[in-house]
Specification:
Layout lengths: L2 E15 L3 E8 L3 E6 L6 E2 L11 E8 L7 E10 L2 H4 L2 H17 L7 H16 L4 H14 L20 E4 L4 E3 L10 E3 L3 H10 L12 H19 L13
Parallel strand pairs: 3-6, 4-6
Antiparallel strand pairs: 1-2, 1-5, 2-3, 5-6, 7-8, 7-9
Helix pairs in contact: 2-3, 3-4, 4-6
The protein binds zinc ion.
The site of zinc ion has 7 residues, from loops.
């Protein structure tokens, strides 16, 4: 007995157990994180793609046992997007691993996670179209904080309360942006004029509107460092895979 769950899912991690078995962690669109055993999976539809490869996005039918503590089983897999270009490029692969690790930390089992699922899928898609990976990581962490209700204050300076324009600095401790002149000291990440508009655009617009947003490499790195310092302070967590990202 048990029940059947149908949902879109992305493979976040794979662990081999013994010679034939494999345990996979999925970020699912409807049921949060789900761990499943891959052994015995039948009806795998992926064309030339191995349907249970890392980061593949599929429609999956899971079987959940009624016995507590038993892993889900995978009944069928129908690949939606294999994101092949990600696994063929080392920097993209590292960036995807980083986002997958962060998503896995922020979503719980049985936690509704449509927004984070759609964000991860969108960022995987952008990884193959954009030249630099830091623009994608900046977009991912900015939107992740929004999905978690932890977005930084961006309209007004968190110290003096006046409107933010021009150059800015990000203070994780104070919870948002401030004028460089209002700086209380500490490890602040500074943003140039123009960065602020990009940050607001990314934080506020629809996900689909971000596909064609141009971000030059220098801005992408500044914005990523600022948002990343904010994210790790508020999440209390930094992905281990941060060490694999290209040096900045
Ligand atoms: Zn101020």
């Amino acid at each position: 007995m048990g029940k059947t769950l149908n949902t879109e899912a992305i493979v976040l991690t794979r662990t081999d157990v013994g010679e034939e078995d494999r345990i996979l962690t999925f970020l699912t669109r409807r049921y949060g994180l789900l761990k499943a055993a891959a052994s015995g999976a039948r009806n795998l539809k992926g064309g030339r793609t191995a349907p249970l490869d890392l980061f593949v996005r599929s429609r999956i039918q899971f079987h959940v046992s009624s016995k507590p503590g038993k892993l889900c089983r995978i009944r069928s897999v129908d690949v939606v997007d294999p994101y092949l270009e990600i696994r063929e490029d080392y920097n993209r692969l590292c960036a995807a691993s980083y986002m997958a690790e962060e998503a896995a930390h922020c979503v719980q089992e049985a936690d509704p996670s449509e927004g984070i699922f759609d964000l991860l899928a969108s960022c995987f898609d952008q990884l193959r179209h954009r030249d630099g990976t830091y623009s994608v990581l900046f977009i991912f962490e900015t939107r992740l904080m929004r999905e978690l209700g932890m977005a930084p204050e961006m309209s007004n300076c968190v110290i003096c309360g006046r409107e933010m324009t021009g150059k800015a600095a990000v203070s994780p401790q104070e919870g948002g942006l401030l004028h460089p002149d209002c700086s209380p000291g500490g490890d602040l990440k500074e943003l140039e004029s123009g960065d602020l508009a990009i940050m607001r655009f990314v934080a506020q617009r629809r996900l689909q509107a971000l596909d064609r947003l141009k971000i030059d490499d220098a801005s992408a790195v500044r914005l990523y460092r600022a948002v990343h310092s904010f994210a790790i302070h508020h999440l209390g967590f930094e992905p281990k895979t941060v060490k694999t990202l290209p040096p900045i």
